[in-house]
């Protein structure tokens, strides 16, 4: 049947009698159009007869009997679970309606299915308001205004989880929703609601709103785990937030990931581990003081995920360590820059950090322990790949990983040679070519530039790191029964360094460390002389070492005290750096005395003092590096006039803060030209 264009909404509801009257009126007002309809569409004029025979002609198989669907009365996502007995009243959502629904959701007696489906449809209408254009999708409800929109979202976030628990009878924690009696009835609305919730989560950028929605999703995680497609969609979004969100958002996203994965561990764990590891590697490519906390959080949370099932984790960890070993082998064999860069980068080093931390955390369980040896071999050969001065920072990072793994896994790893080699392979007596006020920080770099190698801060930082790592490792091994034998070669090489090095600051620190190491060795020898069991009795040796560790050793006591002081100094250093930006010397206009003004006008050759000192005996800094008390007289008048103009300009433009105190450390090896 040919359709006529709709003229108005009221024509859809005309009965046959009204239709006939309209046709009679049309015949009188426009006879030409009526004749055209009579010739081309007789069915339209016989409207009443067709409508009476409509029921008897159904299913006859003719072309005119093809059914054409009318306009949708609701969202297609919800059409599968509509209950005729629970259909809500269509129309515009008001605050009064929301208050009524909220009261029904909070009912202590029983929550009706009709209420839950109505609330979920209202939530869907609210989502359509912000995700689609007006009129693009038909819905049972229409949400207009920000107050109504916020009220709908707030109602669902605050009251829907408890209402669902009441309806399903899940007041007991830990009950599987799929085993509940009424789960099949609420299954369709839940899918639609969770899909809309993920859309809302993907479109929000505010940290506060994300926090609220993630807490709500954490409550709904038990339902998310019931649907495979929804679970994968939510995990994909949550992993993105886990890797790139604000601190609170990251933590909440990880808690949601952990809960969803635990509820569906057999089917989701492998996918989650792979996705999270690839995301971790992708986001640790660049390291800075601002990104370190996020990278550390991702690493620790990823360790938590791998410990859920060590049998499944073994396959992944073995595969990823093997990939690292393949990259390292290619770099050793091919010896090209691009192959070395595949190893000497932050993604490779942070992967080593991750697997060492995981193996250390699972030291008491046997599943992953066979991977300790291959990982140690990868780390040690990474140090040996390019053992030059430029890659000392990377060496120190690798040594830190080995020390932590040795301590947590209670496994001996020969680390001392990698540290003592630094003392013997570099000439610390060599004079520096550049002076830097700021010391080098190796925490966020792997490779040093040639200009940094020429600075005075390079040698200072290297000695500091060698001292700290030697002290940490020897303190960790200080209770070992073989400690006097472990440190023999290291002690010999440190003594050789002390004979060769002429820098007192370096020799003083390492001599102090050497004394503590030798004192600890003598302590272990005295304690070892008292034992009566055989060295082959591993159980007795372990018990003896545990008792010595509990009693305390001279080196461990010294390390504990040093560690406390070092942490305090690091905090002070950070805060001082922050304060330094605010407390740098302020240059204000200099107020010259009358005598000084006469002196300047009388003698143009005299230098202006930029950094006045409280004491006349202290050195003064002039405009030029080699300025003397009185500059030589110019040879011609042009130079004299030019210098006079510069001096006047300096007097006008330069201000000196009289309240700034002299700080010799601030201006050490510093000249006015550098300023």
From TrEMBL:
Q: Where is the composition biased (Basic and acidic residues)?
A: 16-31, 591-605
> Which intervals carry biased composition (Low complexity)?
32-48
Keywords from the UniProt entry? Nucleus
Question: Major place of localization?
Answer: nucleus
Instruction: Tell me where on the tree of life, at the top rank, the source sits.
Output: Eukaryota
Here the segments flagged for biased composition (Basic residues) are 636-648
Q: Which InterPro entries match?
A: ARM-type_fold, Noc2
Localization in the cell: Nucleus
The family note in this entry says: Belongs to the NOC2 family.
The protein in question is named Nucleolar complex protein 2 homolog
């Amino acid at each position: 049947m040919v359709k006529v264009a709709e003229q108005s909404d009221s024509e859809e509801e005309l009965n046959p009698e009204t239709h006939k009257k309209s046709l009679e009126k049309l015949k009188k007002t426009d006879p030409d159009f009526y004749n055209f309809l009579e010739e081309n569409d007789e069915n339209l004029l016989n409207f009443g007869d067709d409508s009476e025979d409509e029921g008897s002609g159904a299913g006859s198989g003719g072309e005119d009997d093809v059914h054409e669907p009318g306009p949708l009365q609701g969202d297609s996502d919800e059409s599968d679970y509509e209950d005729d007995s629970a259909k809500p009243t269509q129309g515009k959502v008001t605050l009064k309606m929301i208050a009524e629904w909220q009261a029904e959701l909070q009912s202590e007696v029983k929550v009706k299915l009709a209420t839950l489906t109505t609330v979920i449809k209202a939530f869907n209408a609210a989502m359509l308001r912000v995700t689609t254009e007006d009129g693009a999708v038909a819905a049972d409800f229409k949400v207009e205004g920000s107050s109504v929109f916020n009220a709908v979202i707030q109602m669902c976030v605050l009251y829907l989880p408890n209402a669902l628990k009441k309806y399903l009878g899940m007041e007991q924690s830990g009950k599987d929703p799929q085993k509940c009696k009424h789960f099949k009835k609420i299954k369709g609305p839940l899918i639609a609601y969770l899909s809309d919730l993920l859309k809302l989560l993907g479109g929000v950028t505010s940290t506060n709103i994300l926090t609220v929605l993630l807490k709500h999703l954490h409550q709904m995680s038990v339902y998310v785990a019931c649907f495979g497609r929804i679970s994968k969609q939510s995990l994909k979004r949550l992993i993105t937030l886990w890797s790139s969100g604000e601190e609170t958002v990251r933590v909440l996203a990880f808690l949601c990931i952990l809960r969803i994965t635990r509820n569906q561990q057999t089917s989701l764990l492998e996918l989650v581990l792979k996705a999270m590891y690839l995301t971790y590697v992708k986001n640790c490519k660049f390291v800075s003081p601002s990104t370190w906390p996020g990278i550390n959080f991702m690493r620790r949370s990823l360790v938590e995920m791998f410990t859920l099932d060590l049998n499944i984790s073994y396959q992944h960890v073995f595969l990823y360590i093997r990939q690292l070993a393949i990259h390292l082998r290619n770099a050793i064999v091919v010896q090209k820059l691009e192959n070395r860069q595949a190893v000497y980068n932050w993604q490779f080093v942070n992967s080593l950090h991750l697997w060492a931390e995981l193996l250390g955390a699972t030291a008491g369980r046997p599943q992953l322990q066979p991977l300790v040896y291959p990982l140690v071999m990868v780390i040690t050969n990474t140090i040996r790949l390019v053992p030059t001065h430029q890659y000392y920072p990377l060496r120190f990072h690798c040594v830190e990983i080995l020390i932590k793994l040795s301590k947590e896994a209670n496994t001996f790893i020969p680390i001392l040679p990698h540290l003592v080699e630094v003392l013997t392979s570099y000439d610390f007596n060599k004079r520096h070519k550049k002076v830097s006020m700021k010391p080098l920080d190796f925490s966020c770099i792997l490779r040093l530039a040639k200009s940094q190698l020429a600075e005075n801060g390079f040698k200072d930082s290297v000695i500091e790191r060698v001292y700290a790592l030697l002290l940490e490792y020897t303190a960790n091994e200080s209770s070992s029964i073989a400690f006097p034998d472990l440190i023999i070669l290291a002690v010999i090489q440190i003594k050789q360094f002390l004979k060769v090095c002429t820098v007192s600051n370096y020799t003083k620190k390492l001599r102090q460390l050497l004394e503590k190491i030798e004192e600890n060795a003598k302590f272990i020898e005295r304690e070892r002389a008292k034992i009566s069991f055989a060295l082959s009795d591993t159980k007795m040796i372990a018990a003896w070492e545990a008792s010595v560790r509990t009693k305390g050793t001279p080196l461990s006591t010294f390390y504990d005290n040093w560690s406390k002081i070092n942490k305090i100094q690091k905090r002070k250093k950070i805060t001082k750096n922050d304060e330094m930006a605010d407390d740098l010397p302020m240059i204000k206009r200099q107020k010259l005395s009358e005598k000084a003004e006469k002196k300047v006008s009388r003698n143009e050759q005299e230098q202006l003092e930029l950094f006045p000192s409280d004491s006349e005996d202290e050195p003064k800094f002039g405009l030029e590096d080699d300025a003397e008390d009185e500059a030589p007289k110019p040879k011609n008048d042009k130079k004299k006039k030019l210098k006079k103009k510069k001096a006047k300009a300096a007097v006008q433009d330069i201000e000196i803060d009289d309240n700034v105190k002299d700080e010799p450390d601030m201006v050490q090896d510093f000249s006015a030209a550098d300023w």
